[in-house]
Amino acid sequence: MIKRSSSYLKRKNIAVYYKNKKIENPSTIRWYKYNRSNFPFLFVQQPSDDNSLGRLKFIFPNSSSVYLHDTNFKQGFKLKNRAISHGCIRVENPLKLAELLVVDTVKYDLVRKELGLKPLKNYAGKPVSSIKGQLPQKDLVPVKFSPKAETPILITYFTAWSQNNKIEYRPDIYKMDEKLWIAMKKFRL
Q1: pLDDT by residue (tens digit) across 56-76?
Q2: What's this model's pTM, rounded to 2 decimal places?
């Protein structure tokens, strides 16, 4: 896509890195000189409304590199089959989750500020109601915010459950049912 359109990176809000240093003007790179076997660059799409991970990502320790994230495809939450992600978990209201995790209002307003949103509290004598909509958005750089206290996360995966006195079934998109069935058969009495 870069070879086809020199403005592709800018349109998609993608930063280019070479040896861990950001290239300020990637249009100076002679892209035609590179292919899959000699490609030294790293691409990082910045948090934005165009990024499929949205503007917020919640990273937590786990052995599967799974995380919770915002999405730019909000209508996906209305779909009957919501298995449209690639292993990570989309959060319908990530700003609300951030508010619950950081607990204190000042830290939450810092999160809002990083996203270009107006604060909830009155700062520097300016009433919040005087700030219209979103604040001007600068180049977003990932900023880490940590919860005040450790927050346990339990992720479950169900393909069948009881609802309204009947069993509801869903497709086994991760192919776990067969593995579970084999494991259960070992303990059958």
Answers
A1: 889 888 888 888 998 888 888
A2: 0.67
